[in-house]
Amino acid sequence: MAFSCQRQAAAGRAAPRTSSRRVAAVPRPVVLAAAAAAPAAPAPTPVPPSKLIDGKAIAETIRSEIATEVAAMKQQYGLTPGLAVVLVGSRKDSETYVRSKKKACAEVGFDSYGTDLPADVSEEELLKVVEAYNADPRVHGILVQLPLPKHISEKRILDAISIEKDVDGFHPLNMGCLAMRGREPLFVPCTPKGCIELLERMNVPIAGRKACVIGRSNIVGMPAALLLQRRDATVTMVHSKTPDAARICSEADIVIAACGVAEMVKGDWIKPGAVVIDVGINAKDDPTAKKGYRLVGDVEFDGAAARASLITPVPGGVGPMTIAMLLQNTLESARRAAKGEAAPAH
Ligand SMILES: Nc1nc(=O)c2c([nH]1)NC[C@@H]1CN(c3ccc(C(=O)N[C@@H](CCC(=O)O)C(=O)O)cc3)C=[N+]21
């Protein structure tokens, strides 16, 4: 039915120039001989599963490792790790992420605490919530879901989270320690930590390799570059003001794309054999998809997959790892509390 409508629409058009893609969907485009001059691109060769980094499966393995440790911790110390998740406002994406974080907590045997605040909550009110969780001994990790509404200073809120409970790793003291040789942060931000974990679990060597990080955000690009550098990679960061991003990227053995622009990294940015970690999650209109859109990364997947030796899909790549690392950080925090470890001097 859809096909016949398209066929009619195309046939009725004087110049078929713009309809070549639609015509490709029609079995025999005999009605449009002119379109044969501009055949649609052939369908991409399917990506062999051996090239895919299955973040979903790896995250599942990590969650089961965590569940085992939680059971042991309950036995040995009578302690259950607790994560507090603070959500301000009602952004649909944030609500979804917060729900999956709480679900993941339940799955591994953590307690989770949630505070949902209206979008117009005052900064003072939000600070009080953070401080209450700072003081609550049942809570080992505090996550304030970002982004926050415009009238609230993200900086002020993140600075208020006790660094011992900063499981997001966004506190400047944790970030600062990450940037310094000879220092260890209490927590490493979850998304870049998940990227490195994927590389390590896939046995991708990092030391001595060239890495390119695309994007310089506080929560992904910058910490990802620092983590790679700590593992002795030679790291180049490219960003919106870099004049020759494609050339720099095409020299890298490892690419971490976190620029937040859908499919910006094209196939020819990828050195043959490189490993590609795609952090992006972008909605792209797709009338054939159930919801009218589908998720794509910051990397143009088919083009990059044709050249990469390993690549993460979106969804099912870095996303699930972010949550697994959040659980890992919370477990680590609970372990420190159980052992009565003091925070390292800073
Ligand atoms: N304080 C704070 N900490 C965060 O860690 C934080 C945040 N704020 N704000 C938003 C971003 C985003 N984020 C994701 C977590 C899981 C998936 C995830 O599980 N994605 C799945 C499903 C994707 C989907 O279906 O939507 C996947 O990629 O396969 C994605 C994104 C955490 N963030």
Polypeptide structure, described:
With 346 residues, the protein is an alpha/beta fold. The chain folds into 3 domains: 36 residues, no CATH class; 111 residues, Rossmann fold (3-Layer(aba) Sandwich); 132 residues, Rossmann fold. The chain is 40% helix and 13% strand. It is built from 12 helices and 10 strands. The strands form 3 sheets. The chain has a 5-stranded parallel beta sheet, with helices on both faces. Strands 2-1-3 form a 3-stranded parallel beta sheet, with helices on both faces. α8 packs across α9 and α8 packs across α12. The longest helix is centred in the first third of the chain and has 23 residues. It is globular. The N and C termini lie far apart (68 Å). The N terminus is likely disordered. Bound molecules: 5,10-Methenyltetrahydrofolate. Belongs to the tetrahydrofolate dehydrogenase/cyclohydrolase family. Pfam families: THF_DHG_CYH, THF_DHG_CYH_C. This is Bifunctional protein FolD 2.
Report a brief summary of the structure.
The protein has helices at residues 2-11, 20-25, 55-77, 92-108, 123-135, 154-160, 172-179, 190-201, 221-230, 245-249, 301-307, 318-338, and strands spanning 82-88, 111-117, 141-144, 210-214, 234-238, 254-257, 275-278, 282-285, 293-296, 310-311. The protein contains 12 helices and 10 strands.
> How many beta-strand segments?
10
Quaternary arrangement of the chains shown? single chain
- The poorly predicted ranges are 1-35
How would you characterize the largest beta sheet?
A: 5 strands, parallel
Number of spatially distinct domains? 3
Provide mean pLDDT, rounded. 90
Order of helices and strands: HHHEHEHEHHHEHEHEEEEHEH
Helix amount? 40-55%
What is the terminal-to-terminal distance?
A: 68 Å
Tally the helices.
12
> What is the CATH superfamily label of the largest domain?
NAD(P)-binding Rossmann-like Domain
**CATH level-two architecture of the largest domain:** 3-Layer(aba) Sandwich
